[in-house]
# Entry
Amino acid sequence: MKRDFWVQRWKKSEIGFHQQEINSHLQQYWGQLQLVAGSQVFVPLCGKSQDMLWLRAQGFRVLGVELSEIAVSDFFAESGLQPEVVRDGVFNRWQVDGLTILQGDLFELTSADLQDCVAIFDRASLIALPVEMRERYVEHIFRLFPAQVEMLLIALEYPQNEMEGPPFSVQEEEVSRLYRSRFSIETLLDIDILHESPRFQQKGVSYFIERVYRLCCR
# Structure
């Protein structure tokens, strides 16, 4: 899956993966990370997610990364925010009042870019990547965060042969394999949401499980 895939999805407004509402699992489980107010949170492949506004409203500083300029521009326009936009190395930095989005390729981030981040909220990053890219993604996250970090991770599981991603199916066993060398993994929620997912019903998916994980550095 190349960079142009996501750029074109945003250009064509093929963004069924975008959630209009603040993620309910974020609201329910974020407090379990017990972060200090004012801490900075990293949101990979953030798109124009309203979750970033919710995190900021809870008193956290937010740093997202997003490839599509359209997504970033739409986020600030739809939120009624007027960011300062400056060139920062290979990224365009969009910044306003405790909320920053680096517009560019996640795989070009360095640990210096994220040195103040103490937590990660991943709702749409791991599941956006095909299986051949997920290990590379997790290894990159490990390099970006050499010190302790906590994560709230949301993953989906369904029969991959019944529907093409994205979002891709990431089974519980794969989450364990990818992260267990650095993190202890706790499953906070395990629920079949097919009955409330008409798009997946139309695709003929037989089950559609959503899992929420809390990951803590060992």
In short: The helical segments are 3-11, 24-29, 51-57, 69-79, 131-144, 172-179, 198-202. The domain at 1-7+37-124 is CATH 3.40.50.150 (Rossmann fold). The chain has a mean pLDDT of 92.
